[in-house]
Amino acid sequence: MPRHNMLFTSRAFANGPLLIMAAVLTIFSFSHALADDELACSGKNLFAQLKREDPVRFEKAIERAETIPNGNAIFWKIEKSGVEPSWLLGTMHVSDPRVLDMPVGFYQAYGAVDTLTVELAEVAEPEKLAIEILKHPELTTLQGDQTLDHILPPDATSDVAAGLKKRGINMNLMAKMRPWFIYMGLQTRGCDIRRSAKGFKVLDEALALDALNDGIRLVGLETPAEQFEAMSDVPDNFMLQNLRELLALPNGMDDITETMIDLYDQGKVGMIFSLIEFVSTDQAAAKALESRLITDRNKVMAERAKPYLDNGRTMIAVGAAHLPGGEGLVELLRKQGFTVTAVN
Q1: Could you give the CA distance from residue 140 to residue 167 in angstroms, rounded to a whole number?
Q2: Is the pLDDT of residue 29 over 50?
Q3: What are the phi and psi torsion angles at 219 (to 5°)?
């Protein structure tokens, strides 16, 4: 898929829900060594490996992805009779240069909008998001005398402690944290933290800052508290299972993120759901995460975006996983009466 390099004035040398990631990155940054000055990441594409080692299973993953509606594009045009066009962009919440290359047609569309709607308007100020997290200890910490080792199965406590230690995180520091908060913290990669230290922005933050610089109205489709609550709503036992699976991966989140970036770069966002199934040994836990963090929030985003789309000249920029599927944003907007067409 042809891409154009992102040249937002706020991007260079100025920097898995989204804004939780920005806030957790700020809070968890103490846990990662910053001595390594390299900006490159070490992850490997899991599907490339699967294709080599188990082509039959790889083909099944492809077949699964092909059943997901609207899974082959990240940039969409939104139209309705009598209204100027709007646009839908799927993003990734990372600062990888491949993600910062924008799809063909983006700049022409961006030049014609007067409103940018993102998941959280606060993405432009990640420090405020960190403060918002601290305002809700009931969502991020275990209550009463409960600690993480009390809710872990006996045979899992040492595994989790070892997995956290391998990533430079002391189990004692995490003893009172909800599993979802640790899970999100582990999704902040060292290379993104190093890029942030050098002034690079994750894509969503760069978009939001550029909109503010260009006098484009910036609107959030959710509040920080709503995103925190979405994560908190996933039962601890399911989130613990997702956490254990993440810790069990040889390269942790790096391989998953690298795989997702490769898929995103090709516009194959439907394959993200095949990836989730591929790395999950507990489908119930994976489904609980998907239902609360993607499907439920899709409905809120579509409803809140509609008034802006009814006026036209709006760009929606949200995580790419929110676009595909029968209950994804593309289909939900079509149900609202809009014609939604892939740009490329």
Answers
A1: 20
A2: no
A3: -130, 135
